[in-house]
Amino acid sequence: MMQWISARTISVRMAMCVVGAALLWSAPFTGVGGIVLAQEQSLAKKLENISLYGYVDASYTQNFNNPSDGVNNLRSFDGDANSFRPNLAQIVLERVAKAGGDVADRAGFRVKLNVGEDAKFTGGNSGSDEFDFQETYFQYIAPIGNGVTFQGGRMNTLIGYEVIESPYNPNFSRSFLFGMGEPFTVTGLRASYDFNDQVSFAVSAINSFTGLQADDNNSKSVEALLSYAPMDNVGLSLFGFWGPEGGRNGSIPNPADSDVPFRHENTDRVQVGGILDWQATDVLELVVEGYYGNQANAVLSPGDMDTSTAPTIGNAQWGGIAGYVMYDFTDQWGLRVRTEYFRDGSGFFACGGEGGDSSVGNALQCAVGWTDQYDGDGAQNLWETTWTLQYKPVADMITRLEYRYDKSNRHSFQDGSSFGNNQSTLAVEAIYLF
Asked: Which of 19, 229, 260, 394 has the most C-beta neighbours closer than 10 Å?
């Protein structure tokens, strides 16, 4: 039986034949295999610009207080006392955008996946999943001046010296400044520009201080970083944060009208600070970081939990300073020393305070019931000194032996089944990079 075929169908089929003939003509010696080979070569060319790398990190920490709750109080990513910890396995898939070339060359992306105990606390949300996409963002360099780099998605913050990734920090344990008073990641849009080899600037419009991927209010916050390198071996960075963030998140009874609680939420939070980095010699590097933070109408004055009188609402203030000394004896052996002071003037961040994220390791956890000694006043001053001996048996492996001493002006540490004003830990860490 003859089947009727429309003129349009005949035209489409003829066009397909012409295209097929052209493809075969472009590979006259290899036929169809040449077409497949050309496609594979094109894909291989794209994959050449994509990097896959990461690391695996594990540790053991001994707390000489032998805390009954099994917690290294006020620590962020080393919170397990007298225990082994599979800290993190991180995989990064990345295509770095390039300032030159066509539109495709100017586009890039990064996907950073964390798996392990630390991943519970890198997400900015309370949770128990050992799985977190720490960074997921696109990147594009617009051909404006020297090139304006735009990034959108979830990214590491611009604030602070230390980072989530242990291999990129001098020490195994994180500082109080990092663990309590700084954001880890942010979600939003960022623009950065290199004016010249010495000066660069970056600014981000973000959801919140805690790195939440979903905004916790209807307003956006801003973070910024200005970097200046007056000499090849000296770098100065100034950073800042401003935005309406969660203040007194709880409802406080109002004696005048019990049906209308006092609420002070989404008040202005400001943080300013800087980092000075000096490569004194080929084997000696010195770093100093300091910052100050303030949030309006965020805390109650001590003793004002008595509902018979109107509570006094005050500003939360926090800040501190940390110094680092990094010395390499050889390519394999090195010593890193950190000392710092952190002041949580209102108890806003430390030990269950409301300013931070209660899921961040154990950075906000103190000995249970410690504030009962101080009538609910959570303010405290913290000091610590950390000595880290680093050894690289091979180029892609880092091992560390670390002693750390923490001190507080309050008895906020668990000491056996009682309270103490200090804790000492000895930790061993191994990292393999690939």
From this structure: 229
